[in-house]
TrEMBL record:
Natural source organism: Amycolatopsis endophytica
Coiled coil region boundaries: none
Keyword Transcription regulation: yes
Alphabetical list of PROSITE patterns matching this protein: HTH_TETR_2 (PS50977)
Protein name: AcrR family transcriptional regulator
Domain HTH tetR-type: 10-70
Domain of life of the organism encoding this protein: Bacteria
DNA-binding region: 33-52
Entry-linked PANTHER family: HTH-TYPE TRANSCRIPTIONAL REGULATOR BETI, HTH-TYPE TRANSCRIPTIONAL REGULATOR RUTR
Species lineage: Bacteria, Bacillati, Actinomycetota, Actinomycetes, Pseudonocardiales
One Pfam family named in its UniProt record: TetR_N
GO molecular function: DNA-binding transcription factor activity; transcription cis-regulatory region binding
Keyword annotations from UniProtKB, A to Z: DNA-binding, Transcription, Transcription regulation
Length: 188
């Protein structure tokens, strides 16, 4: 069980993120300042940056640690092929979710429509490249070579590319169809 200090930190992070989401959805990402978010969460701007060093973008999208851990877990805990596991994992994220909560749908639309958020989201995904290469190599007893680096990079670019298509889920599936052709041994 977390101690009082950890619970207070978590509550502050949650209050900041909730205030940011509410303000961003009401007025748009660019129409809100960090000072307004801190004020809405009853904290100081310095507290906001202590919890979210990535600034406004991190309030919406977090940091790459969670993504990296989730990607690694998707590969390690898979039942079938690596590519199927990663496709299934991405289906649970942002614009690929089949039945998202209304606020999640609005947040995904905000990210797609806001250039700063799209850039940040893309960077969060591509920051996971080394970890994804390492876990695929480990789990498949392969060399962490250029082929796996290409595969990881392609996979990590899918959210940015397919997420803005008219039918993101279909674009996700199309992307993995192409990846299966290039890496059939990782398909299933």
């Amino acid at each position: 069980m977390a101690g009082r200090r950890e619970r207070k930190k978590a509550a502050t992070r949650q209050a900041l993120a909730a205030a940011a989401r509410e303000l961003f959805l009401a007025r748009g990402f660019d129409g809100v300042t960090v000072a307004e978010i801190a004020d809405a969460a009853d904290t100081a701007v310095s507290t906001l940056f202590a919890h979210f060093p990535g600034g406004k973008e991190a309030l919406v999208l977090g940091d790459s640690r969670e993504r990296e851990q989730a990607l690694v877990a998707a590969v390690r805990e898979r039942r079938g092929g690596v590519l199927d596991a990663l496709r299934d994992f991405l289906r649970t994220r942002g614009p690929f979710e089949s039945n998202p909560a209304p606020q999640a749908r609005r947040i995904a639309a905000l990210v797609v429509a806001t250039p700063a958020l799209r850039r940040y989201a893309r960077a969060l995904w591509t920051d996971c490249e080394d970890a994804l290469v390492a876990v695929i190599a480990e789990e498949t007893s392969r060399e962490a070579d250029l082929s796996l680096r290409l595969l990881a990079r392609y996979i990590l670019e899918i959210p940015d590319l397919a997420g803005v298509e008219p039918d993101p889920a279909a674009a996700l599936d199309a992307a993995f169809t192409h990846l299966r052709r290039g890496w059939p041994e990782l398909a299933g």
